[in-house]
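Design request, tokens follow.
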């Protein structure tokens, strides 16, 4: 029974590479569409001309804009738990445990993290103009729906536990060693420069609102400008594109390897059936009794001295592992050509 042209392992590699390349290409196209949408979006700043600009559009709404402004609380601001006088509009308190886990395969300790507590607080806030004389403000809606929260760390403390002998013995027996607890506080501070990318709408009461886009586009809030958001997205898009090309190249290499092997196997099967004699075999007429005793395909072409046997072709003589006659096993002193009339 003939072997299949591609093995099960090669088929698995080919299918996996195609599946991963398709997934990575989808992620690349998704990021690329977001990049193109941000590049086409109007780039605005909060000023007193903004309400007239939005009211002149269809539906009194700009579907996708990049808006820059200064963060101000709409009501009372949040106060830091660890710094007096530090106020913000978004606050995140995180308690994370760090542990060392024994890896029996690598024979080493590997670090792992576990979130013990995570609390996020928000208050309504606005984007205002850096110009103190401007009165226009934009309300930022649903900030927790943004792709990532625009927070900066204002407090961080790592607490290491004290271990006794009994604790150390139990840790080595269980394979888990507590390393410590990390306590952090992150805030979006009042007065920070913020860029929001989303839908800008003018409500009937004349107030402006930046909100998540209605057409499914991503909602961004970042501390930098819109170029920093674009650079991060282009970097992620290039990473997914490279991964897709790499997986596709791996699948193509597996396929080419299988095709080359199948081609060589087909040629090997066809050669004995339809083989044409080469120049040496077609030079004269000779029968099976004159064939080389080693390869049985070419005529006898040389005389082995000193035994004098004429038994092999010149190629097989060159391939002999030792200079011994294939017939009598006698030593070969020299070789002379044998010519048949």
């Amino acid at each position: 029974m003939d072997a299949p042209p591609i093995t099960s392992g090669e088929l698995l590699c080919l299918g996996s590479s195609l599946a991963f390349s398709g997934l990575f290409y989808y992620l690349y196209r998704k990021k690329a569409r977001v990049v193109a949408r941000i590049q086409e979006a109007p780039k605005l700043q909060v000023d007193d001309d903004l309400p007239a600009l939005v009211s002149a559009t269809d539906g009194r709404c700009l579907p996708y804009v990049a808006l820059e402004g200064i963060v101000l609380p709409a009501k009372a601001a949040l106060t830091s738990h660890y710094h007096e006088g530090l106020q913000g509009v978004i606050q995140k308190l995180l308690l994370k445990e760090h542990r060392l886990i024994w890896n029996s395969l690598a024979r080493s300790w590997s670090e792992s993290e576990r979130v013990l507590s995570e609390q996020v607080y928000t208050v309504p806030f606005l984007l205002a103009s850096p110009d103190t004389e401007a009165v226009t403000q934009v309300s930022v809606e649903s900030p927790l729906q943004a792709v990532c929260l625009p927070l900066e760390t204002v407090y961080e403390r790592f607490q290491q536990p004290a271990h006794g002998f009994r604790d150390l013995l139990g840790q080595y027996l269980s394979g888990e060693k507590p390393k410590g607890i990390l306590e952090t506080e992150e805030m979006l501070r009042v007065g920070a420069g913020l860029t929001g990318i989303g839908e800008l709408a003018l409500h009937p009461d004349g107030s402006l609102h930046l909100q998540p886009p209605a057409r499914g586009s991503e909602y961004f809030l970042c501390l930098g400008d819109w170029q920093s958001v674009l650079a991060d997205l282009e970097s992620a898009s290039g990473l997914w594109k490279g991964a897709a090309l790499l997986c596709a190249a791996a699948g193509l290499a597996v396929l080419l390897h299988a095709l080359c092997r199948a081609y060589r196997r087909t040629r090997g099967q066809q050669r004995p059936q339809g083989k044409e004699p080469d120049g040496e075999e077609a030079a004269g007429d000779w029968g099976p009794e004159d064939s080389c005793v080693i390869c049985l395909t070419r005529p006898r072409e040389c005389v082995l001295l000193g035994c004098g046997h004429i038994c092999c072709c010149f190629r097989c003589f060159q391939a002999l592992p030792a200079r011994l006659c294939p017939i009598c096993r006698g030593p070969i002193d020299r070789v002379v050509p044998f010519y048949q009339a």
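Comment from the thread starter after seeing the answer: thanks! The mean pLDDT is 86.
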